Amino acid sequence: MDMTSEPVGRGRQRQTQVYVRGLGGEKPAVPVAPERLQEAARVHLKAPDFAYLAGGAGAERTLRANLAAFERVQLLPRHLRGHTERDLSVSVLGHTYATPLLLAPLGVLECAHPDADRAVARAAATEGVPFIYSSQASVPMEDCAAEMGESPRWFQLYWSRDDDLTRSLLRRAEACGAQAIVLTLDTTVLGWRPRDLDLGHLPFMRGRGLAQYLSDPVFRAHLHGPQPGPATTPPRTPALLRAGAELAARGRPYHLSLEQMRAAVARFTATYTRPDLTWDDLARLREWTRLPIVLKGILHPDDAREAAARGVDAMIVSNHGGRQVDGAVGALDALPGVVAAAGDVPVLFDSGVRTGADIVKAVALGARAVLLGRPYAYGLAIAGEEGVREVIQNVLADLDLTLALIGVAAVRDLDRSVLAPA
């Protein structure tokens, strides 16, 4: 047999690359094991930044439940299937993507690395993975789009109390070539997050994660002219002086004064989400954009049925990575019920995905595609753009090899037959 003609998939390529480099004494800069990846990121980050990226709500029961749900689902391999290559491609919202992996929208990526979303955009484009821009990005969506060329991107929306601002963000997303709008449902208020509270640290109060707003003409229009001052002037402590200097520095790229930055933080805090949204508001969103609408945060089958009845284009099963409701159901546990209730509406998945084998399990349970979150942020913290690329390569290599080892030739062929009985 001529081994030189043997097909080589993503998994073999990545393995070979790592092992060949190992012959020269070079180990991967980014750990492969999920637990070691998180610990390596912790070493590279300041305590408040790691807390924001890694933390969950309350006692973090839901964060752990997400991981435990994957532990309970087991694969049941088949052999002698005659497959030599794997097809990882999937079809989502009329687009064919090379793999079922998308990069989830993560806010305040400057917590992980100064290049933030810009580095992630480059990595996603290079690896051929769609990137979902966050409303709470550290880099304006236009800058990320310029880095990505024709590579696919979506936009995640927090529906502001200022409808004019919401419409402006939608127009900008369309102009940037976004292929879908992802409306996040589960963050109408910020969850109770002890790691951040114990440190007294919320990035937005320091002007971080506000790039989409500071670059938006509607938002900026409210910041010009004299701003109302506080009733009393707080003492000029060293900590407040440092905070003022940090705000001033963040305003400089947008030509905003310190007072305008303070006004920006106050306005964002007052308007960033709308707790009073109802299902009827989706009709307004449909009028405001020509893009497909994806609802992120669906866990209850009744909500899935309602979303389908309202004509949404897709939905994402998600509990915000355990960051919002402590004690909420593990996302993977909720996935089968949502898929059954959604009918013909495509269902995507996030929350707790750490490996390629996790992607296999989620797709086997009915997800069309899967969003990866914290792991790529950890890669970003460790090695910037290259770190994000390595995380993507590792997850997709694991996906490819897992398919090979369970006897499945294509992601689209995954179903419950590859799972052990519960």
TrEMBL record:
- Asked whether the UniProt record includes Nucleotidyltransferase among its keywords, one would answer no
Occurrences of domain FMN hydroxy acid dehydrogenase (ranges):
26-422
- What are the protein's UniProt keywords? Oxidoreductase
Q: Which cofactor names does the annotation list?
A: FMN
InterPro entries named in the record: Aldolase_TIM, Alpha-hydoxy_acid_DH_FMN, FMN-dep_DH, FMN_HAD, FMN_hydac_DH_AS
In terms of Gene3D superfamilies, this protein maps to: Aldolase class I (3.20.20.70)
Keyword Oxidoreductase listed? The answer is: yes
Leader sequence segment = none
Q: Which family does it belong to?
A: Belongs to the FMN-dependent alpha-hydroxy acid dehydrogenase family.
The protein here is known as Oxidoreductase
**UniProt organism field:** Deinococcus metalli
